Amino acid sequence: MPFMSSVQLSAPNYRAFSADALADGLSSLGVKLSNEAECEAAQAIAAELISPNVAAASTLKRVQARTRGAVFSFSEDETVTGVLAIVPLSPAGLAAVEDRSFDPLDPADDHLALPGQPLAGAYGWGMAARTRPAARAVVIATEAMHKLWPELPFFTRAATPDGERLITGKWGFVHHPRADDDLLVLLPRTLQEAAA
User: Comparing 15-24, 26-35, 126-135, 152-161, which segment has the lowest mean pLDDT?
Assistant: First the structure.
């Protein structure tokens, strides 16, 4: 049985995905929804600072076009210096993360939560920054997203030791108890409170 199912993550915890509310909230923090050119710049930053083995720019653009809320960028002097990318998960996407069939390098279309459809969780695709202001903005935007959807699980993998310290320390992610790899999960707030 998948971990999240074993802790009774059920349909009532889903919400309609509001890409506009997400974009508006992050924009107020200086992190804006990326256009196609910014998706390409974001992918280049991620490939340089995280790993060359990240999702292709074409994948970022495809997921962005379908969800209208996956890739966000921070710019200084009209140059992208920071990126925050997530995959809004449909119920099928949540199940795929749980059963390890989710492909973060090329998420299947049916794993994506589309605007107005059920949002079951989020997969942290990546965040990277070339400058201190960009890093600060991306971290604050990520924290705002966690507060926006407290009833939903967030998943990610840490790309660096510093990233893992932030993710498991300040943000409270834990190693997925049923994963035999580096999958991390931030449990929905109700489950965190029940475990305390």
Answer: 152-161
**Structure token pair of residue 6:** 């074993």
Q: Does residue 172 belong to any structural domain of this protein? A: no
Give a yes or no: residue 109 inside a domain. Answer: yes
Domain count, the chain: 1
CATH of the domain at 90: 3.40.630
Residue 39 lies in a domain: yes
Q: Does a structural domain hold residue 164?
A: no
Compute the distance between CA of residue 27 and CA of residue 12 in angstroms, rounded to an integer. Answer: 28
| Residue 50 CA neighbour count, 13 Å, CB half | 23
Start-to-end CA distance of the chain, whole Å, equals 23
Contact between residue 108 and residue 90 where contact means Cβ atoms under 8 Å apart: no
Name the phi and psi angles at 128, rounded to 5.
Answer: -155, 155
pLDDT at 190: 53
Separation in Å, CA 96 to CA 3, 9, 48: 12, 14, 28
185 in helix, strand or coil?
strand
